[in-house]
Amino acid sequence: MMSSRERKKAAALQEKLQILRSITHSHALSNTSIIMDASKYIKELKQKVVRLNQEIACAQDALRQNRVTVETLGHGFLVNVFSGKSCPGLLVSILEAFDELGLSVLEATASCTDTFRLEAIGSENLMEKVDEHVVKQAVLRAIRSCSGSGGDHHDDDDDDDDDDE
């Protein structure tokens, strides 16, 4: 005959198995089947964790893409640049793009370690009106030129409007 203590342990075990059954959405009746379903459920959760980690890695890779924002400030612009990787000559390439547009850099903060960040305030030449979109495209071209040419910031192959030669 079972003692009161054994009955309490058995009841507690059954209660825990029922909780496990409800958590894992198991329809099993035997203890062994409930535990097997729980094991399967844990494997599925581990697979979900792997999938989510892959999605996070993809999202982080997407963050490493180039971002350029340009805001008009009176007779100038606030330009923010982020590139997931820095390459030699990128800052020079962007500053040359500003120069070609007739923008004078009044203030700038740059970081060029693993990633590249630049915040610059530039004023435009009063003779030439420059549009935000034009500035953004020039900066993106400078980034593409630098990263696509291994750091040679004079690579203008993607510019169709060059009349140099």
TrEMBL record:
One of its GO terms (molecular function) is DNA-binding transcription factor activity. Residues 155-165 have a biased composition (Acidic residues). It holds the Pfam family bHLH-TF_ACT-like_plant. GO terms for cellular component: nucleus. Residues 146-165 are annotated as: Disordered. Keywords: Coiled coil, Nucleus, Transcription, Transcription regulation. Residues 68-144 form the Plant bHLH transcription factor ACT-like domain. It is found in: Nucleus. Residues 35-62 form a coiled coil. Signal peptide: none annotated. Its main location: nucleus. Belongs to the bHLH protein family. This is Plant bHLH transcription factor ACT-like domain-containing protein. It comes from Oryza barthii.
